[in-house]
Protein: Glycosyltransferase family 28 N-terminal domain-containing protein
Amino acid sequence: RVSISCHSSPSNSNNDPIRVAFSGDGTGSNVYPALAIAEELKTANPTCQFLFLGTPNSVESAAISSAGYDFASVSSPPQNLVFFPQRLLKSLIQCLCHLRDFQPHVVVGTGGYVSFPACIAAKLRGGTNVVIHEPNSVPGFANSLLSFLADAIFVAFNSTLDSFPRNKCLVCGNPVRLSIRNLVSKATAMSHFFPDSGLYVIWQTGVEAFDEMDSLVKTHPRLYITPFMHCMDLAYAAADLIVSRAGAMTCYEISATGKPSILIPSPNFSEGNQFRNASLMADVAGVTVITEDELDSSTLAIAIEKIGDKKMEDMSERALKAANPNASP
Structure:
């Protein structure tokens, strides 16, 4: 049985609010579960205080700032592995300083580089519970190491239990943000992006690719292009079909919103997580999967054309049945 205490220490006032630090970086699958958990905790206890640790000028810094939570920067991992030990030590010291100032009762690690020094720092401080959340079917490197130090481990899939100490584990699914679980109408969402109805494309390119893509297509009258989508709930609500990579949180959000989709797993993850995620979505929700090697404009166009109204309706129904949108603790 997993049990975590979040009560203030005896030396503190009884009115001392619960403070939770979150650490997760690199991808949305590491960042958005933390935001969803924070939303649920805030709803259950409005006095809760949160601090998010992550790397500067990143996915997490943009998402967390947009959500209105406090964010503290930790140095990014170096490009050259020769300097990794030095940078990791620097990151650990930074995390110790941030946690000393914030005095959290719990540190939640959701994967990625920063979660490792943050959770280690929490253990070095003493008296701080460490919880990790693993969104993928195959654990990332940081969570695999941290599992031995964690007080509790929350996982999305039953198959992940074999990768962690079972006595610490609880299968809870992936938490989905409240805004995505309660979408506005399609008409309202469309009006945020476009002046009238019709066939349009909403494209989140990612920060690194934005300038090049924008220079090629920015004059297209039926395209909304952005490096980062701050209002992802509106994008989901406006969409009839989603074409996306297959990150764990993307797959869960597609299921929670009941949207038909075409998934293109990224080959840039050594554990093969995205291909496994996409394969699972194909089995349970009937999504179309295109590998990177198969991908070109013709292949994608044909895949889109093959998805008629009847198949879209079936995919939507199956996605909703597979969803567990209330996974947040």
Summary: The chain has 13 helices and twelve strands. The two ends are 15 Å apart (CA to CA).
